[in-house]
Prior knowledge:
CATH superfamily of the largest domain: ANL, N-terminal domain
Number of domains: 3
CATH architecture of the largest domain: 3-Layer(aba) Sandwich
Distance between the termini: 81 Å
Number of strands: 31
Helix content: 25-40%
Strand order of the largest sheet: 5-4-17-16-18-19-20
Amino acid sequence: MSPGLLPERLHPDAAQRKPPERFPVWFASFAQSFAKYARFSMNLHISGGFAKLCRQIVPSAANRPANLALIAVTILRVRLLIRNKTEADLEEDPMGYKEVYEGWQADPEAFWMEAAEAIDWDQKPSKALFEKGDRLFEWFSDGMVNTCWNAVDRHVAGGRADQVAIIYDSPITGRQQKITYRELQRRVAKFAGGLAARGITKGDRVIIYMPMVPEALIAMLAVVRIGAIHSVVFGGFAANELAVRIDDATPKAIIAASAGLEPNRIVPYKPLLDGAIEIAHHKPDFTVILQREEKPAELKPGYDHDWAEVEAADPVDCLPVEGNHPAYILYTSGTTGQPKGVIRHTAGHLVALNWTMKNVYNVNPGEVFWAASDVGWVVGHSYITYGPLVHGNTTIVFEGKPVGTPDAGTFWRVISEHDVKSFFTAPTAFRAVKREDPTGEFVKKYDLSCLRAVYLAGERADPDTIVWAQNQLHVPVIDHWWQTETGYSIAANPLGIEQLPVKLGSPSVPMPGYQVDILDEGGHPMRAGELGAIAIKLPLPPGTLPTLWNAEDRFKKSYLTTFPGYYETGDAGYKDEDGYLYIMARTDDVINVAGHRLSTGAMEEVLASHPDVAECAVIGVTDQLKGQLPLGFLCLNAGSTRDHKEVVAECVKLVREKIGPVAAFKAAVVVDRLPKTRSGKILRGTMVSIADGKTFKMPATIDDPQILDEIAEALQTLGYAGG
């Protein structure tokens, strides 16, 4: 390399030269723009002593912009020379997925500190990762920051005051509402003031028990504004399940609505809330009730406070909290019947979600992002409330269903009407739409030219559903995989970095922060194509659970014990030769047929490819000879007149052809619907218990308990469930 190409500081005889006293203003700006680029490039494109020299200087450059500027310029010039390009070509040659992922691997600390620059801090953290010992980690712990400021106030201060923050669209009531960032700030600050005036302070827990209305988001933001911790419980949860969460979180207050609205019925929340408080050992100090005109509730004087009265208070400012202060607790089902309280620390949550909005979902601030979920689930926390608002997007609060409000075209109406750029829903929602409208007649009624991409998560996205969506919508349909515990995608196709080839059945590749390995029962890595347990190397990245609420031992036992040094996801799958990940089933859903470990997900994939099958599930039932046998449940397309026995025979033949006789798939039954949680997950474990005649606890999250009776009747026709 010619010495003439080197900046002054790195020139061979730099020691004899007088360093420059100052740098022009443009140079500092240039350095800031390319600092991240330089850090990654020096590990990827430069070799030998030069790379070593750069790496020695970078750690000392944090408080010396001149050093960082010089490194940035040097690396950039060298890379351009290697590729024989000019600086004008740079914008046409952005970093791809491989470079970004390898950049994270090379220096995780620098990667996440760079991502943290996009967040407003009251006090910046001294470093990213804090190791607590005994396999526990935290992120940005000594920073001071406020979630509500980053999600609301900074956008008002930064010129987005008149941008719409929340679009409320309720096909059930026919009402719509648009709330700007300015209005959102005013309402959140006043409602937070009302909570503070009633004794809510930093660290207090507040349960939120609300339907899909803007006030649900306002309540969440108001709680974190004053440093309290919210725990959102899905509106309409049974009283005994709500009571369990009250006793675990011990909230000082509960914020609820008088009722929730379903397509054909009103669900009164107040009686459920009163029943839960009566059952619970812990008694909240007070409640706040949002009165809905469809079903107002009678309030107890002095205990139940009307929402409007609380929001009439004087506004309060945001309270900075430590980076490791919990923003919220979100309960997820546990195998013991006791729900697990997943904690989300404030700083890592902000940094990670903000990073995903552009890099994974490819939306820019100001654009409309829609996650068709519920605030009671993790998707609602991450991508209805916090992710879009922190990033400066417009989010949609949708009070409706994929079908029946009023028809299978409601998704397309909302996308067209509100100029949605990126749409996120569950595969089960698309399967419901596909079942009602297999030829996409409703799609044709709307102009969907605004839509750039669709994202699926929550249940495994079968290839048939993805192909149907691609053919109807003519945009990338991206399956991605994550969990309540992680809070955002473990594996995805990062459209904001690079659109990778879509492989049907795969959520694509691990995101920065996640080293995903496939392990056998002994914890040994498995070869490409081999089915095993999916585990993530510790530490988990920012924004993921650091522990469980008041249950650290349970956290370690549930997630960290089976595979030392790893987080156990509970999912089974494999990687292909290109590093693409395939999620085949929950570990519990991998069945053992005569010594062969088989994925129920692989069989479901085959069944879903049958032209008459709209949706399906496969479970493993007990068999004295082979240990377990697979059994299929088939939901047919709406209007199908095929003979059920013929469809079953064709499906059995399909599995034999695609997977082979080893699957021993010989039995299936046609049912009208499958038992699911309200978030769309199929309750396979409960179905297994019914088939094997075992007692089971009614799942708290089940959408319609009556479906279990229908499943039992169907199983009895095959000789199971006591038949």
